[in-house]
Peptide/nickel transport system permease protein (Aureibacillus halotolerans), 321 residues
Amino acid sequence: MIIYILRRIAIIIPMIILLSIVVFCLAKMMPGDALGGEIDPTITDAAYIEEMREKLGYNDPWHIQYGRWVSDVVQGDFGRSVIYKRPAIDLIVSRIPNTLFLAISAMIITWTFALVMGMTSGRRPYTIVDNTISTFNYLGLAIPSYILALFAIYFLSFNLGWFPSTGSVSVGLEPGSWAFVQSRLYHVILPALCLGAFSAATYTQFLRNDIIENGRKDFVRTARAKGTSEANIYRKHIFRNSLIPLVTLFGFEIGSLIGGAIITESIFTYPGIGQLFLESITRRDYTVVMALTLILSLFTLVGSLIADILYGLIDPRIRLE
């Protein structure tokens, strides 16, 4: 298993290098540069502006700028935000806990609904229960998350007043107190539901279809012929094999949840890295955009690695390939 994990890590290393090149080139292709946020906007002296651009290294060849940027990133220096006038990594670290809390909450909601509905639907196919669950799944797949978020805010926040529509915690609460924890949970429920709804629908359909398909396999018929109880057949043969494709989705879900939080956080004004990412693009804070793009991409690669490891744990044949 250790060799299997090391092989997967070795595959990721060149992908990280290629990813850093792509992120850097995309940032350089954006109009303008970060100099506009680093100097006084009232300065119009072209000679002074060109002198500053030369001093900051913006006129250097791209490979020299890339090497300098990578060297700084390896040392934990992602540059300085030209909008907030503070290190980009400090700004991002201050927002990451909110986004991770939202993503983990959405993932818990996703797996809870998916496992319950998927197992129920898969064990009772083509019944009224199965058709009802499938209807909800198709609605979840058809409705974009931002549309669902707007409806949720309108009905559950404005009309019914069940949940807050903005922020991550109520104002004036002492961090670490029980009231603070309750407020955090209360504020995350609605955006987490909207963020996890699409994934829950996808997972439910995959699990339902795999349970039905695996229930018809030859090894299941053989187990029944040997007199194995239905409970053991379902647990050891059908359900375990049905989890394999879900595990593959799970790794990518880590990156997609955090990436999907960009829209959700903006709609709910939830102060995470998603909202920071859109704000940085709008205000051309290139340093923060590059740092966040790299970090979000790394989350996807780490998710892929986790999926590979879980895949190998569930199906030992994968480790031997």
User: Anything to note?
Assistant: Residues 156 and 162 are 6 Å apart (CA to CA). The mean pLDDT is 78. Residues 230-267 form the longest helix (38 residues). The domain at 92-319 is CATH 1.10.3720.10 (MetI-like fold).
